[in-house]
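Hypothesis: this fold can be encoded by more than one sequence.
Test: take the structure tokens below, design a sequence, compare later.
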């Protein structure tokens, strides 16, 4: 296996399937060998550590998944690659926004708050459907008592001020979750003069969103993309650089701020200081 000497070695004028597999394999190895240590040392009360190690774990898994999809898919379309690609672009844009924030922890808390808000909304939506369609008898859907119990338990947590604005007076009926930027707002806030990689990631994110929910349009678009192998492999090659960039961002924090010494059998870390 040839080691990556700089990020530029990821980008080839005419990448082949073998080039993509090599890159993904190296990214997976580097991520995996460090996760073995980082997860053992993880302080679950350290919100930043949980967020960034979670990101590293996620993109490491994605690198392995993409490797297997590309290796074993002989006919296409690469629909699942695009779907995973959209997730990677979501993660890249969001972590860039977190790192640019004046208070990173607050940015992470707002992401968590939005996830909690959406979860309660989903439960309420299932309850409404159960009531309106199944007369409240569908066994797999939540009941009003279950949702009330979950809200009560949430409000009894000692850290709810991280996630809701009215922590001192909140009730299950009036709790107001903190909000955070949409991905479009994040891309706008980054600006081309600040970080044009965010703008590029948002472009791919919008393009690949067509493949998440099936439609004849998305199916035909995927087939058209797969017909041009050279263009397809260039897009997938660029996708690998976003996995790299997320790893780079994670290790910048752990190496520079937390004094972590990475496991680096591929001599990979020295590439992080290069543009």
């Amino acid at each position: 296996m040839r080691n990556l000497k700089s990020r530029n070695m990821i980008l080839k004028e005419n990448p082949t399937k073998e080039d993509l597999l090599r890159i993904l394999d190296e990214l997976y190895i580097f991520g995996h060998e460090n996760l073995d240590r980082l997860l053992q040392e993880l302080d679950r009360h350290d919100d930043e550590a949980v967020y960034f190690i979670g990101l590293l774990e996620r993109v490491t898994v994605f690198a392995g998944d993409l490797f297997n999809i590309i290796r074993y898919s002989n006919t296409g379309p690469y629909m699942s690659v695009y779907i995973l690609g959209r997730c990677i672009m979501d993660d890249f844009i969001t972590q860039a926004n977190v790192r640019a924030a004046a208070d990173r922890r607050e940015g992470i808390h707002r992401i968590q708050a939005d996830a909690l808000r959406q979860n309660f909304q989903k439960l309420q939506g299932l309850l409404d459907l159960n009531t309106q369609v199944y007369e409240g008898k569908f066994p797999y859907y939540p009941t009003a008592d279950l949702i009330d119990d979950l809200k009560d338990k949430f409000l009894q947590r000692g850290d709810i001020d991280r996630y809701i604005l009215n922590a001192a007076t909140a009730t299950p009926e009036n709790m107001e979750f903190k909000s955070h930027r949409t991905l479009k707002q994040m891309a706008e806030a980054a600006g081309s003069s600040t970080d044009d990689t965010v703008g590029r990631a948002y472009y791919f994110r919008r393009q690949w969103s067509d493949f998440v929910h099936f439609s004849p349009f998305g199916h035909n678009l995927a087939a058209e993309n797969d017909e041009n192998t050279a263009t397809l492999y260039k897009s997938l090659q660029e996708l690998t650089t976003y996995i790299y960039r997320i790893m780079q961002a994670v290790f910048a924090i752990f190496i520079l701020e937390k004094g972590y010494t990475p496991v680096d059998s591929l001599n990979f870390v020295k590439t992080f200081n290069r543009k």
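The longest helix spans residues 104-134. Residues 7-102+182-273 form one domain.
Hypothesis status: open.
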